[in-house]
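Might I ask for a little of your time on a matter of protein folding? Here, with my thanks, is the record as I have it:
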Amino acid sequence: MTQTVSQYVANIDNLPVLPEIAQKVIALADADRPNIGELADLIQKDASITANILKLINSGYYSLRREIADIRQAVVLLGLQQVRNLVVTMVSVNHFEEPPGSPLRLADFWDHSLGVATIAQCLANRFKFADAANLYLAALLHDIGKVIIQCHYPDDMSRITDLMGQKHCSMYEAETQILGFSHAEVGAVLTRNWQLPPAVCEAIEFHHQCHKADDHVFAAILQFSDFVTKGRLQAVYGDQFTDVVFDDEPCWKILMQTFAAQNIDFERLLLEMDDEIEKARELVRQARGG
């Protein structure tokens, strides 16, 4: 009998959980009346995360005019949501292990994921899209289902990679043919188990089919950011056979229609993304303590 994606995830022994500090930081930052002092005190209990965040904030990534000495200053300067996303980034990048001989290298995976997240947040700010913070979170974790399949279902991953090699298709297409669902749906189930915001989980589920999401604009920005990162940074393993013609993609059409009144030069915007890609690389280095 064919498994549903929910059963597939539920059958995993020792299913990864979002570390407690990330859960608490998200809850505090997203509260109706967030308390900066309480959030700062929570983060400072983790010396490693505190050191990495302060190192990043005082690096060329932000190019601040003065040194930031403590997390409370960082929260005041950057805002609750930005610090929330930095904590989740630091935790996520160091949370998963790479099995020996894995086709999906985690260093490349996080380079790609941080590239998508950085570009998504940049585009959200440029489009004046209200939910930029959650868009970053969705982009950071959009491909996490690939890691789950690789770590917990290595035989399935072998079948998927074999089919990709035979048919020169994407991982998404191979997964759908073999499993009946994709890493996008696996990631959505996982992040719902983590009780992440519903908008984040939905965008992860539909980041290959943004037009099917209820909030198709949110999902379109994520999918477009994914395409840009594949083209300008690198295609993470599983996407090397993916060719993108923007004019044919629903995400491009949705963005052009939604933000037409802003008279955005999309071609110029793509060129400007190169600087954001470099920032993403720096963020990965800092998150890994480099």
User: Anything to note?
Assistant: The longest helix spans residues 106-127. The mean pLDDT is 87.
